[in-house]
Amino acid sequence: MANTPAPALELRDGDADELAASKAERTKLETERDILRQAAKYFAGETNW
């Protein structure tokens, strides 16, 4: 049996827009997560319990 590549998936109408929106949302959420992590580290360093 020959090693054949998988067929390419075709995007339906609106799928490309939805994919782009999902990628943009992911980037936004990752940025927010990173900011919150940095803030948590900053404030954790300031506590003197």
From TrEMBL:
Top-rank taxon, per record:
Bacteria
Which named protein is this? Answer: Transposase-like protein
Q: What organism, scientifically named, is this protein from?
A: Gordonia humi
